[in-house]
From TrEMBL:
Matching InterPro entries: Aminotransferase_I/II_large, AON_synthase_class-II, PyrdxlP-dep_Trfase, PyrdxlP-dep_Trfase_major, PyrdxlP-dep_Trfase_small
UniProt organism field: Abeliophyllum distichum
Domain Aminotransferase class I/classII large: 31-382
GO molecular function: transferase activity
PANTHER family in the cross-refs: 8-AMINO-7-OXONONANOATE SYNTHASE, CLASS II AMINOTRANSFERASE/8-AMINO-7-OXONONANOATE SYNTHASE
The protein's name in its UniProt record: Biotin F
Cofactor(s) needed: pyridoxal 5'-phosphate
Superkingdom, natural source: Eukaryota
Family statement: Belongs to the class-II pyridoxal-phosphate-dependent aminotransferase family. BioF subfamily.
Assigned keywords, A-Z: Pyridoxal phosphate, Transferase
Length: 402
């Protein structure tokens, strides 16, 4: 088995300071409980998923190596696209190599809309207005920066989950074509976008609503359809971007959308056009994972039970499987992470530039395959390096502001 590293390799095996290769050959590497990954449903090691990958690899190897528009698109990819479109209740779906490339492809395609409609460089009012949450994922931010370089979009950043601020920005915006893009479940803070309020603003202002559902796909909703299913607003979300590298336990990204949007992204989304498509065994495994995630609903029940268990054990009002314990300085975060590693828990210290200075944290992620006993052991270890009362107070203040 391969174990992740925090960079403190000496702590990974029984005798600190022992030679790594000797320790490995002697079987002295320690087993760790991983509370830092994104394999929310435990599907990365599911037999059905593994068998699908093995079967495809035996029959096709890695498959044709080329971009999807050249020779990299196969029936395996099409089956996966169809299953994801069905899951997200959208007309079609476009696979991308990663979730990052999916966001980049969509936003750069949006950047082309203004120039295409204007027949050249658009005037200010002909440009596309993009409204982005202040805590959106880096791939959304980078996609926007690239689109801005094209000179056909104008960006407005609204305060995190602040619908009053977004409403004010929309009301003052002179541009008619508007896009609001947000993470649905924020990867560092573990809070949900205010979907009901976003839907109300969409009806008021008529913008295109786009969500990055990376951390909620397969985790939220009765069938695993994500945040839009959870909040019963699937028809109000125009574009749903996601990943297959988290709860699906595989690799890849996707954009669930209309057929017209798919055609536009295929022709203008550079990170899609110029990337080699995912290997056939990966597509086969991901397609199997979609089926397993739908069928084995007990996994979603289990992960949300773990969320409730963590809250009961710590008193911290967590609302999702992503738990962000802000400790402050880099030194405190690293010290806590190393302490937990010694006790057998893999939890990474999150530091700048991922988060702002003095908001360094321990980012804990729960999984359906974690047990209540695992959580008891974890919270006992955490209590040695984190003050739960301070964390609880911090979370309460944060939620009241939203």
């Amino acid at each position: 088995m391969i174990f992740p590293s925090l960079g403190d390799d000496d702590l990974m095996h029984g005798n600190e300071g022992a030679d790594n290769e000797a320790a490995a050959s002697a079987g002295k590497f320690r087993k760790l409980l991983i509370f830092s990954g994104n394999d929310y449903l435990g599907l990365s090691s599911h037999p059905t998923v593994s068998k699908a990958a093995i079967k495809a690899a035996r029959e096709h190897g890695m498959g044709p190596r080329g971009s999807a528009l050249i020779c990299g698109y196969t029936n395996y990819h099409r089956l996966l696209e169809s299953s994801l479109a069905d899951l997200k209740r959208k007309e079609d779906c476009l696979l991308c190599p990663t979730g990052l490339s999916a966001n980049m492809a969509f936003i750069t395609a949006v950047g082309n809309v203004g120039s295409l409609l204007a027949g050249g460089k658009p005037s200010m009012n002909e440009r596309i207005a993009i409204f982005s949450d202040a805590l959106n994922h880096a791939s959304i931010i980078d996609g926007i920066r690239l689109a801005e370089k094209q000179g056909s979009v104008v960006t407005f950043v609204y305060k995190h989950c602040d619908m009053c601020h977004l409403d004010a920005l929309l009301s003052k915006c002179p541009m008619k074509k508007r896009v609001v893009v947000t993470d649905s479940l924020f990867s560092m803070d573990g809070d949900f976008a205010p979907m009901i309020e976003l839907v109300k603003l969409r009806k008021k202002h008529g913008f295109l609503l786009v969500i990055d559902d990376a951390h909620a796909t397969f985790v939220c909703g009765k069938t695993g359809g994500g945040v839009a299913e959870k909040f019963n607003c699937e028809s109000d979300v125009d574009i749903c971007i996601g990943t297959l590298s988290k709860a699906a336990g595989c690799h890849g990204g996707f954009i669930a959308c209309s057929k017209k949007w798919k055609l536009l992204i295929q022709s203008r989304g550079r990170s899609f056009i110029f990337s080699t498509s995912n290997p056939v065994p990966v597509a086969a495994a991901a397609h199997a994972a979609v089926g397993v995630a739908k069928k084995e609903r007990w996994r979603r029940i289990a992960i949300w039970n773990r969320v409730r268990d963590f809250q009961a054990l710590t008193g911290i009002p967590v609302t999702s499987p992503i738990i962000s314990l802000v400790v402050g300085s880099e030194e405190k975060a690293l010290e806590a992470s190393r302490h937990l590693l010694k006790l057998g828990f893999h939890i990474t210290a999150i530091r700048p530039p991922t988060v702002p200075p003095n908001s360094c944290r321990l980012r804990i992620t729960l999984s359906a395959v974690h047990t209540l006993d695992d959580l008891r052991k974890l919270t006992n270890a955490l209590s040695q390096c984190v003050n739960f009362q301070e964390i609880k107070f911090s979370c309460t203040k944060c939620n009241s502001k939203l």
